[in-house]
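Honest question from a wet-lab person: if I give you the sequences of every part of a complex, can you actually get the arrangement of the whole thing, not just the pieces? Trying it with mine:
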Amino acid sequence: MVSKSSQSGAQPRVPLSRERVLRGALEFADAHGLALLTMRGLGEALGVEGMALYKHVANKDDLLEGIVDLVLSEVDLPSPGEAWKAELRRGALSTFEVLMRHPWACQLLVTGGGGSGPARWRQMDNILGTLRKGGFSVELTHHGFHVLDVYVKGVALGTVSFPLQKEDMAEVAEKFLREFPAADHPYLVEHISYHIDSGVLGEGDFEFGLDLLLDSLERLRDAAATGT
Amino acid sequence: MVSKSSQSGAQPRVPLSRERVLRGALEFADAHGLALLTMRGLGEALGVEGMALYKHVANKDDLLEGIVDLVLSEVDLPSPGEAWKAELRRGALSTFEVLMRHPWACQLLVTGGGGSGPARWRQMDNILGTLRKGGFSVELTHHGFHVLDVYVKGVALGTVSFPLQKEDMAEVAEKFLREFPAADHPYLVEHISYHIDSGVLGEGDFEFGLDLLLDSLERLRDAAATGT
DNA sequence: CTGGTCGGTATACGACGTAAACCATAGAGA
DNA sequence: TCTCTATGGTTTACGTCGTATACCGACCAG
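Yes, you can. This is the full assembly:
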């Protein structure tokens, strides 16, 4: 007969908090997707009445911004120093990986102004710092940052919102090829066929473009160093 | 007293159609933004009762896909041939420009699998064809296409979803700098200051990255031609 | 004992997408 | 000319969403 005396009961207390709400929302989104993440639903998942969440979160947008920053805080940051290229590469790959782990976050990241919490600031500062310490001018840093940033988010979002999984892609693509005006789109057909054959769906593609960008930036940096 | 006899009355007839619904939706979104584009609202704008739209459109998603493709049909397509680089550049700039004209379309384009109507097919086929005719291998075409595609959409979306206009940016940025832990983010501060000074907000940035990519692709193409 | 604050609940409102039933008109066939 | 039916618009209604507001129980300071 343990009860009443305020401890030892398993679930009844632990009275919620912004931290717990956000963490719960993140887990809920991972488990059921963004579409099902609703205030009432999240409340239920936390054993609480939906409206209770508003005691810890201003509104749903606030909550969404919160979990985006939580996701962003999972990424490995590049550290400013000599090996700028390797560091940026590592940071970009980590970002990509994290976004693949939380696919719903891509959408939020992109519709909500790209995130603007502490974790995002940290990430931005480290990327910018890595470029600057790597010998890039302020202007080139600015351009390089935006290009890289856009690229990572873009591929992540493209990968995530692509409607097909690798398994059923082949059959769906073949069916598609049968239905649409293939004769008018020879190159598209070739492209899709290539996708079917290689089965690739942005796996190595991400690194391909990333290295392309990093090499290009390096070239620009060196050109600026010798020229002008 | 002209009436009854089926013509000359100004507004009463012209009985709607999928075409008119989509066109109306596009204009509505341009005028009031995506958030206010609601079935009832669009109905009202078309002088009709909301539910009437379902006689011409399967559901709201169908409608959204429809207007995305309508937007996409406005872009200038590259034409396969010798001048692949100039053509791709032109096509990319046109896409960017169109997306700036219909900011809401970025969001749809990106959350909805990137569009998949006739206009999108046409665009893809032309870009792919331009690369192939420009001397790119199937693999390189595939990579190049994705990189360019992601880049254009990414910058467009980033530009659109950036919360500030050029006018108020300076003051907002300065206020921001005062509030957040500036000491811990020296490079971010430098970055923002640069934005304030140069006032630039992705204007020339888009072309910068675009040319970077095109040059890189050219280099890869030439390397593949001489090597292997 | 008392009163206030804090965290959770109950209830309610308005807006959304859309299913289902209904109804007006305009031709086509007799 | 009269009916029959398909087409396109209206009405009503349902369930779900975010959230404003009022409430209420437990805790803690005086």
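Two things worth pointing out. Residues 138-161 of chain A form the longest helix (24 residues). Residues 1-13 of chain A have pLDDT under 50 and may be disordered.
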